[in-house]
Amino acid sequence: MARNQRTIKTAFSMEGVGLHGGQPVTVSVRPAKPDTGVVFVRSDVVDSDPIPAHHGALVEGERRTVLRRGMAEVHTVEHLLACLLATGVDNLEVELDGPELPGLDGSAEPWMAALASAGVSEQKAARKVFTVERPLFVEQDGARIHVVPSTTPGLGLSYTLDYRSQGLPPQMADLMLPGGDFAGQVAPARTFVFASEVEALREAGLGAGADEDNTVVLDGARPVHGELRFDDEPARHKLLDLMGDLFLLGADVQGSIQATRSGHRTHHALVRRLSDAM
């Protein structure tokens, strides 16, 4: 599974509105040298240090992943980071002029298209690999993640979604890295919310940039607006979020990860647990 590090061949830019903060933002994504990792640079925060896409920079964030260094934060990084995990891009500088990456269409598909256009360049430095040698287990408030060794080369991922309390039957999504069709089967899955949650989320200051073009609103298993891209789109999006959070480990994983009912907080606990075991 060992490989060389990678970056992109050419820089690119994206524009949009943050899903939660609702602020317009422009993002410039540039190649970076080996062993840089992915760093976020807040051009609108004077004298701020680059924020590493690493679990050491994690802070609490409701329904999203938030990173902080000093006075600067960057929110909702998980969709971009999931694409980087899937494509094996390790080193980037991501400059933005606001606190949150753009929500775009609520999925990772636009990021994947931009990365495909930019191209990938292999670098002369080895990527770190964590090989799972014994089972690990994380459990929080009914969410569970089980990590086990695997003889199959690469990382096996599965996510089981269970929102029967909201009228949505259980769903499961899985993917193998490398080799799985992330671009076609996972990246297009959009952010979702249940209609019964919308008012409370607005009152909590979340979802200011959400609309029917970037967020699937569900009444049970039925979308309130439009159609689902996949029958199990919610489970696929949860798998997407898991992948984005797993990027924060800073290493490829050789093993199998099975998540049930987990969200960002449990994913972050998993990454810290894996880091302790490295």
Shape category: globular
Counting helices, strands and paired strands, the structural category is: alpha+beta
Low-confidence segments: none
Strand proportion, as a percent range, falls in: 35-45%
Question: What Rg do the Cα atoms give?
Answer: 18 Å
User: Order of SSEs, N→C?
Assistant: EEEEEEEEHEHEEEEEEHEHEEHEH
Mean pLDDT: 95
- Major beta sheet, specifics? 6 strands, mixed
Folded structure, characterized:
- With 278 residues, the chain is of the alpha+beta class.
- 21% of the residues lie in helices and 36% in strands.
- It is built from six helices and 19 strands.
- The protein has helices spanning 78-87, 109-118, 182-185, 198-203, 233-246, 264-277; strands at residues 4-8, 12-17, 24-31, 38-42, 51-52, 58-59, 66-69, 72-75, 92-96, 120-126, 129-131, 136-140, 143-148, 155-163, 168-177, 192-194, 216-219, 222-223, 252-260.
- The strands form five sheets. Strands 11, 12, 13, 14, 15 and 19 form a six-stranded mixed beta sheet that branches. The chain has a five-stranded mixed beta sheet with strand order 2-3-9-4-5, with helices on one face.
- β2 (12-17) and β3 form a beta hairpin.
- α1 (78-87) packs across α5 (233-246).
- The radius of gyration is 18 Å and the shape is globular.
- It starts with a strand and ends with a helix.
- The mean pLDDT is 95.
